């Protein structure tokens, strides 16, 4: 099934198997669009966007994410800077680095890769980033503007999910979307975006978390399921109604001695049993993950252009 023939109405019968929502290919499309705009800016003598990333410590997952972000910058023609610090950097030292990047005219946007060591407050660090350079979209100013429906640098993973639904022409209007997980970086913002009166919103959203009662019963009522809880293969076939759209945000490294890396990346959805039952589903890897990076690049371009906060 191709994008144009994607089921517009969740619940529609699927005769030729589920649509596999290809986040990798969609992210590539977006990168091509961004690279073309960067070329135009360069040709017009305008500044090339520059993304900086701060990485603290040596967490394997964080190293991979940051490396992929830097590679993605090169791919679209952005400038990039990776600043690495050891685990024992103090909170004050890290805040000083953030202040430096805030003032650096070359840097249009920057991220501080989470999680941070326990002795550093992520909240303090996020709040120290100037909202106009907060390309992860985690600063309360950007979150607040998103809630108020004002232009904002939107959090990358939630906006990547909305973008995937939009580019695959999956109808959201009036549909019941159940989001599992209420974190500030995924569950809560995606529930807000999908409930907004926007072209790719207007869902009726139920936001579930670890204290939700009868979770499986609620998920079974969903036209669209967004699983963002970080519990490998939590969503099983019996929890999903036939014809649902399933978006799997989870990425958990599970030990796997048969792999050279020593692990397998698992989503929050048991793909093997859920996929045959649903209308469309994102795989892990290759679903939401690549879209997160594409939206980070898009935010950096918007920051460079002063789209949200005019320069
Ligand atoms: P998080 O901060 O740990 O939040 C997890 C959320 O899930 C919490 O709200 C928690 O509820 C809820 N939860 C946990 N166990 C539950 C259960 N048994 N039933 C119902 N709800 C439950 O995680 P996160 O940062 O949002 O990340 C979630 C997953 O997405 C992780 O696997 C992460 O690696 C992945 N992720 C992927 C991307 C990407 O680009 N693909 C980006 C970000 C995150 P409480 O609030 O009640 O504790």
Model description:
With 311 residues, the chain is α/β, with parallel strands linked by helices. Among the domains are: 46-132, 3-Layer(aba) Sandwich (Rossmann fold); 168-289, Rossmann fold, CATH 3.40.50. The protein has helices at residues 23-43, 60-76, 91-103, 122-128, 140-148, 156-167, 187-195, 215-219, 271-274, 288-305; strands at residues 19-20, 50-56, 79-85, 109-112, 176-180, 204-208, 224-227, 245-248, 252-255, 263-266, 280-281. The strands form three sheets. A six-stranded parallel beta sheet has the order 1-11-8-7-5-6. Helix 7 links the parallel strand 5 and strand 6 (204-208). It is globular. The termini are far apart. Mean pLDDT is 94; it is low at 1-14. It binds NADP nicotinamide-adenine-dinucleotide phosphate. NADP nicotinamide-adenine-dinucleotide phosphate (NAP) is lined by residues 157, 180-183, 185-187, 208-212, 215, 228-231, 249-252, 288-289, 292. Residues 157, 180-183, 185-187, 208-212, 215, 228-231, 249-252, 288-289, 292 line the site of NADP nicotinamide-adenine-dinucleotide phosphate (NAP).
